[in-house]
Amino acid sequence: MSNKEYRPTLAQLRTFVTIAECKHFGTAATKLSISQPSLSQALVALETGLGVQLIERSTRKVIVTAAGEKLLPFAKATLDAAESFLSHAQGANGSLTGPLTVGIIPTAAPYILPSMLAIVDKEYPDLEPHIVEDQTKHLLSLLRDGAIDVAVMALPSEAPGMKEIPLYNEDFIVVTAQDHPFAGRQDLELSELDSLDLLLLDDGHCLHDQIIDLCRRADINPISSTTAVTRASSLTTVMQLVVAGLGSTLIPISAVPWECTRPGLATANFNPDVTANRRIGLVYRSSSSRAEEFEQFATILQRAFKDAINHAESTGIQLKQNAESIHS
Fold first, then answer.
1. Which of 80, 203, 206 is nearest to 133 (CA)?
2. Which of 13, 50, 90, 320 is the right S-S partner for 97, CB 3.0 to 4.6 Å?
3. Which residues 6+ apart lie within 8 Å of 132 measured at CB?
4. Strands 98-104, 150-154: parallel, antiparallel or unpaired by DSSP?
5. Domain range for residue 27?
6. Is the previous residue joined to 73 through a cis bond, with omega within 30 degrees of 0?
7. How high is the pLDDT of residue 281?
8. Which residues form a coiled coil (predicted)?
9. What global pTM score does this model have?
């Protein structure tokens, strides 16, 4: 029987949520930086106070009970609300202060982070950004679990329970070896990608999927290429493969200053009438009450992207520049 006077603590709710997510007491204790006995005591106190079994324990596995599954979303919402309360208490009217954990995809992180962090350091000294670089599906999982506050990724995220702030559209540029027939061209058509041995990032990277989708628009299947089996986990590695003559690739223009200035590489642009780009946005939980802060943070990201584009233009590499900020 539940105690009607009982009120769970945030620590107890966090214990329940973490155990439910990890499905393992030892892993949950490590994640919360507490001992396993303390973890168990907190869960027992919560279950006793509520008069409900939330977690079924056995020697082999941890199971969230039916009652636990029903109550889990409310526990997460309570923790989100508490975090939002603290965030708002640290600043006035939703100003950007305190901790902010930002997830970001690997094909954007190296190129906009330097500017973003410089802006934060200069103009938002009370903001404490924490950066998590990972693939889209992992970032969405971290968002759902409350491990990160926002994620910078390609849109649409198509994730339930999330809201999106579109930030900018970014063109793709073709990168080839310097002696390739496409080198320096400014009038490529999508259909001409069929003549390239395209080098792709590993599955799971959104850029991999974006290139595949672009090719499908022209009825091209790059996976059928013999060299498409050659994949890498970073754009830097892909560039080295291009230099070695193993194929060509497509990259977002914000990556140009860091990836295209090495010897042995050349670039080519699509015809101005060809749409070959990606949309990047900020994604956050619809249950979060920090939307006003995230809108502010979105403007910082836009400025960082513009800085990256200005840097790209300063390299002297000719760009098809249709990139635009779309957040208002």
1. 206
2. 90
3. 101, 102, 103, 104, 139, 142, 147, 148
4. parallel
5. 10-88
6. no
7. 96
8. none
9. 0.70
